[in-house]
Amino acid sequence: MNNKNDNWRIKWFSAPLMKLFRKVTPTMSRTEQEALEAGSVWWDGELFSGKPQWNKLLSLPAPRLSKEEKAFMDGPVNTLCNMLDDWQITQEDKDLPKDVWQYIKDNGFFSMIIPKHYGGKDFSAYAHSQVVMKISTRSISTAVTIMVPNSLGPGKLLLEYGTEEQKDYYLPRLAKGQEVPCFALTNPHAGSDAGAIPDFGIVCKDKFEGKKDVLGIRLNWDKRYITLGPVATLLGLAFKLYDPDHLIGDEEELGITCALIPTDTKGVEIGNRHFPLNMVFMNGPNYGKDVFIPMDWIIGGEKQAGQGWRMLMECLSDGRAISLPALSTGAGKLASLSVGAYSRVRQQFKMPIGKFEGVEEALARIGGLTYVMDASRSLTLAALDNGEKPSVISAVVKYHLTESMRKVVNDAMDILGGAGICLGPKNIIGRAYQAIPISITVEGANILTRSMIIFGQGAIRSHPYIYKELESLSEHDENEALEQFDRALFGHMQFFFTNTVRCFFNGVTNAWFIRAPSRAPRKVKRYYKQATRMSAAFALVTDISLMILGGSLKRREKISARLGDILSHLYLLSSVLKHYQDQGEYESDLPFVHWACQYNLQRIQTAFNGFLHNFPNRPIAMILRWMIFPWGRLYAPPNDKLGHEISTLLINPSEMRNRLTEGVFIPENENEAVTQLENAFRKVVDAAHLEKKIRPFQKTFKPEYAGYEAMLKAAHAEGIIDKDEESILQMANEARTKVIAVDDFTFELKRK
Fold first, then answer.
1. Active site (annotated) includes residue 443
2. Where in the chain is the domain with CATH 1.10.540.10?
3. Catalytic residue among 314, 403, 443, 645
4. What CA–CA distances, in Å, run from 483 to 622, 674, 731?
5. 373-394 core/surface letters (b: 16 or more CB in 10 A; e: else)
6. Confidence of residue 748 (pLDDT cuts 50, 70, 90)
7. Hey, which CATH number is domain 316-450, 1.20.1540.10, 3.40.50.150, 1.20.140.10, 1.10.12.10?
8. What percent of the chain has pLDDT over 70?
9. pLDDT over 90 for what percent of the chain?
């Protein structure tokens, strides 16, 4: 179109609305723009659509380890785990042993993301996650040490943006462990608001390595919370770059820039260590005062000056989508395995504590949430391995998996009681409990992630039309801008009308007429239907919120957080359905699937209720409530029967228990706490029928203070059990006694 007058719709409708849009749309900062453009839109786009295409999700290949990756898991990973003594690391040495550091470097644990032609492993995202998860069940401090070089840091940034010279020099050195990397972003005055870091560099000329008038940057910075900082040889640094003398361009303020700086560079000061809640991975501050570096130390060279924020946003998904979910899922799996076993071994009132309904309730949450965590972790990794960079989804799994870890570990501590609060080599969950706030805080604090990022970024980035409308406003050609805006606007209007009708119809019919995918098993089809129904409702309230609240929605963090909760639990629900298919659709998995689906649907309903109860326009809120839930609330939390089925599976040997806890490291040393517990678990289960056999005799045996061993001898003498049965019961009791014991120390808290 050459003239906007050629189209009456644009002239009389779209053009005036576009002017209004420009007036009411809040100005977007450069950092906000770059954050929105980062990554790709994936299943989050389907959930915003109101009619997700389930076959698209179900056709995604399940993540699998290659032969090489499996060999690494069975070889070096197991060897490393057997080398680790977490109590020695965290309580006594406050560091990894030297031989462990060397083994990590020599065997490529720092090179999982580096391509093979640079000497790296070039592992899939799934393998990367499996490695971190397994090691985390043995030593969280070691897992974090390995996480950092394989997440956001010099290696990742070099791969995506480095010059060929930088890659050729640094990547082989990083792969071999000759360089230990860290990445310094957080400043004392800019934590969550990382775009406001006061650390700065000035483009100038100075003497460098004997050469005069070298074009470079004079840097000043103050960083803290830098993992691996105290031992790093290569510092990745984020700072704001200024060019007051216009030595490299017309702009004075170039923006956030990332550079690589050897830590032995003059002026670089590596500070002391932080002490993050007894997790003794290396972490600490560093500083720089008038540090001069040449321009080619910028990652990507001079052409990437000012592009640092975009780099960080593009690469942030690894920490959010791989490392932290792996650590969280590892904690869930370890709790499911160990606390499930402990609940069977530990007895009170002459019965396993796992059979008490109060404990059953906590065990059900442990197992159910672990299933959700593993499902969403696996689905996200499958997306990454198929070329997606889902920035919104990475925020979802970071927030919800670390929060689920908090719930699971807290429940585990409640069940363990004194055995959970007394630290020592026998305490399996204590360090995971201490690590919870660390996971919650890093890679974007959870409060910020929930209240600002998930929906705030998702509504614009993942919505089918909003981003297109905003893009049209920045188009320089006015005619082209009007055409783009007109297409997006009328597409949006049709989308809104369709979802309004769909939402009301689905509500009135309770999703009866929604078609589930043909390949969905009959017993879970209703969950696909209800997920589609809630997706349509979510799409509708998203549009209503943006129309009524406009730019003020950005400041209404509680409203945004609840909308983010709906999106998040829709994704978690999708993950569970996909995971059930990928795992083989076993009948024994159904209690976990039902629990997880019902839990997420109920959480979606709770978020909707909170949104509608607090929406400022009360008439609209009442209409929306009537449209979404015309028959009232219908999603109940998982019932007691489901909880009983899950807890029963956790306190008994089963294939489902094995699938749920796959990836937990079981040490070869029989004196290790987890190994002893699993050994006791098997012996107690094997002796269960004999426990029932002697129970009537136990009630009549006198005196009780004679002890369990004397009672067994008496039962044998009475002919109630034979010699072999007496031996089985005796071994089970000895194993039980050993694992319920807690550590004690000398008065100075030294190991005996």
1. yes
2. 67-181
3. 443
4. 36, 65, 80
5. bbbbbbbbbbbbbeebbbbbbb
6. confident
7. 1.20.140.10
8. 96
9. 74
Q: In the chain, which residues fall in CATH 2.40.110.10?
A: 182-312
| Assessment of whether the complete model's pTM goes beyond 0.85 | yes
CA distance linking residue 436 with residue 431, whole number of Å:
9
DSSP three-state, residue 404? helix
Angle at 734 between CA 733 and CA 736, to 5 degrees: 60
Rg (alpha carbons) of the chain, rounded to whole number: 29
What average pLDDT does the structure give for the chain?
Answer: 91
The rounded distance, in Å, linking the Cα atoms of 648 and 592 is 12
pLDDT band for 503, please (50, 70, 90 cuts). very high
User: Do residues 153 and 181 make contact, with C-beta atoms less than 8 angstroms apart?
Assistant: yes
3-state helix, strand, coil in the chain (%, to 5): 65, 10, 30
- 527 C-beta neighbours (distance < 10 Å), count: 23
DSSP 322: I
Enclosing H/E stretch for 283:
strand 283-294
Q: Which residue type does 376 have?
A: S
Q: Yes or no: say if 151 and 90 are a contact pair by the CB < 8 Å rule.
A: no
Q: Please determine, looking at this structure, whether the domain spanning 67-181 carries the CATH number 1.10.260.40.
A: no
What is the Cα–Cα distance from 422 to 400, expressed in whole angstroms? 28
Pairing between β-strand 283-294 and β-strand 211-227 as defined by DSSP bridges: antiparallel
Q: Are 318 and 156 in contact (CB under 8 A)?
A: yes
Residues 333-348 pLDDT 10s: 999 999 999 999 999 9
Query: Residue 580 in contact with residue 524, Cβ under 8 Å?
Result: yes
Q: What is the DSSP letter of 617?
A: -
**Which of 533, 710, 41, 76 lies closest to 317 in space, CA to CA?**
41
DSSP 636: P
Task: Report residue 244 as tokens.
Answer: 């007051």
Please give the average per-residue pLDDT across 266-284, as a whole number.
92
* CATH 1.20.140.10 domain range(s) in the chain: 316-450
CB atoms under 10 Å from CB of 278, counted, come to 15
Which of 260, 60, 70, 38 lies closest to 159, judged by CA?
260
Phi, psi of 115 (to 5 degrees): -60, 155
Task: Determine the 3-state secondary structure of 41 from DSSP.
Answer: coil
**Is the pLDDT at 396 greater than 80, yes or no?**
yes
Cα separation, 268 vs 287, whole angstroms:
6
Spatial separation of the C-alpha atoms in residues 549 and 468, rounded to whole Å: 19
Mean pLDDT of 532-543: 95
Sign of CA dihedral 404, 406, 412, 414: negative
Query: Regarding the domain with residue range 182-312, which homologous superfamily does it belong to in the CATH classification?
Result: Butyryl-CoA Dehydrogenase, subunit A, domain 2 (2.40.110.10)
Q: Which residues of 705-731 are buried (b: 16+ CB within 10 A; e: fewer)?
A: eeebeebbebbbeeebbeeebbebbeb
| pLDDT value, residue 617 | 95
- The answer to whether 238 and 310 are in contact (CB under 8 A) is no
d(CA 494, CA 16): 19
The answer to whether residue 605 scores a pLDDT higher than 80 is yes
Residue 471 pairs in a beta bridge with none
- From residue 138, alpha-carbon distances to 144, 198, 283 in Å are 12, 39, 20
Q: Which of 615, 510, 601, 599 is nearest to 562 (CA)?
A: 615
Please identify which residue in the block is written with the tokens 């919104």.
392
**Residues 369, 375, 377, 380: is their CA dihedral positive or negative?**
negative
Task: Specify the residue for token string 């706030």.
Answer: 437
User: Please, what is the Cα angle at 427 between 421 and 433, to 5 degrees?
Assistant: 60
Ranges of beta strands (E only) in 3-112 are none
